[in-house]
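Entry:
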Amino acid sequence: MNKGTKFFFVCVISVLFTAVYVWYTLSRPTLSFQNVALPSVTDVSDVSSEMETFISERISESDVRSQSKGGMDDLGRAVVRHDEKLPLPADAGGVKQPRKVLVRHLGLDQSFGFLAMDSSHRDRGGRYATNMTCHRVHFAGGRGVCLVVERGFFTTYKAVLFNEAFYSTSTLPLNGIPSRTRVSRDGRHAAITVFVSGHSYSEGRFATETSIVDIDTGTVLVANLEEFDVIRDGELFSALDFNFWGVTFMKDSDWFYATLSSNGVFFLVQGNISSRQAYVIRAGVECPSLSPDETRIAFKKRSSTGVRVSWQLSVVDLETFRETELTESRSVDDQVEWLDNSRVLYGLPDQEGSAASNVWVVSADGTGVPEIFLEDAVSPAVVREGDIPLS
């Protein structure tokens, strides 16, 4: 065997060893899990029945507490995790506070990264794992979207559409890193945003692709919102650097709000799926989230110091356009979820760059103190009674 042949075989063996090492490194767990896991969601109706029983128990106990000044707050603490300092909203009536919230579970156990249902009450151990792993999740109207990152020798991305029993109905390949997703209140449409270059908004240079799909059929209705005609001050507005993200649907799921960026400016736009048009509303709004009563939009307001970018959570009234900064002083790079018409939820890492994260809650009127709502979780999606499934 000549030197050239030997060199060739050495190179081949080196490449094979390198490939095996890379595969092993990427596929093995990166965290040391405890030998425990969350209970499984085997039947969503069972979980619902448990919650109904719990609510009934709390109603009977409230009669005893009603004579104390803190009776209403006590009821809130019993059913909503870590909610001692925030008063119950007037429209909640106290009784409806137990809520099912879908999250990405981040506890250090065998359910890490899985989609989980949380009853938002710690003492009763009310978090259940599904069989789906999710990077981002949203749910409404009996339909949901789970954005998945599959890490192996090659990293791939997909969107799993599922029904209220957590059965997958369709799977769609994604062209980039999952970023945001939202489901319309009637469960008919889903919006999905991915990064097609770059890894975060804070890197300064990035490109997004935001699509809209029919959840029941898995049909892509809009491949990219950049296909839309954009109207600004009554005239057609276009630029090569358009990027859309942060869709939030109106009750009429043919309409939505979203962020449009161009030339370093971040616009709030209102779009219509049928007409393929979007209308510029105002500047300075990123990742909008429409309140359940459709009167306000919560969003993150950008500020920059040199190359460092931070975001202040704020709320804008859609009638008066009056802005209110929320009392969360930390930078929140998330599209918030409204818990009800009075409070918003958002994910925050324990520290910058940390994989550990909690879901926080704060009043939407600029008062109160931020509190942890759900521990070891991110990407909250509130399951609302008023969002009626299609079937």
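The radius of gyration is 23 Å.
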